Amino acid sequence: MQPVQSDTPNIKVIGIGGGGGNAINRMVDAGVSGVEFIAANTDLQDLNKSKATFKLQLGRSSTRGLGAGAKPEVGRAAAMESEAQIRESIDGADMVFITAGM
Fold it and tell me: Residues 26, 93, 97, 19: is their CA dihedral positive or negative?
């Protein structure tokens, strides 16, 4: 006899920056279940307010937790610095939804 395998997909929702983090918090407050929530932000103070299960500080060395200052090139550099951690956070997912704001 073989063990029964679950058909439930591994779904992850990653919120990027303040806008994405706000969306994650609203989903958590609304009771959305069956997904893993990940918050990713350069702003450590904002990240600490997140209700996400997992939190990822982007650009730890380059921004030192102070945010990207609404500068896309700083955010991009921070994401590139944290590429390995981003990949690790979504590893094993069947579906990944990304939420962000501008």
Answer: positive
SS3 content of the chain, % helix, strand, coil (to 5): 40, 25, 40
Give the number of domains in the chain. Answer: 1
Q: Is residue 76 part of a domain?
A: yes
Residues 102, 88: Cα–Cα separation, whole Å: 25
Per-residue pLDDT reduced to its tens digit, 12-30: 999 999 999 999 999 999 9
Task: Give pLDDT tens digits for 36-49.
Answer: 999 999 999 999 99
> What range defines the domain where residue 55 resides?
37-102
Which domain CATH number covers 93? Answer: 3.40.50.1440
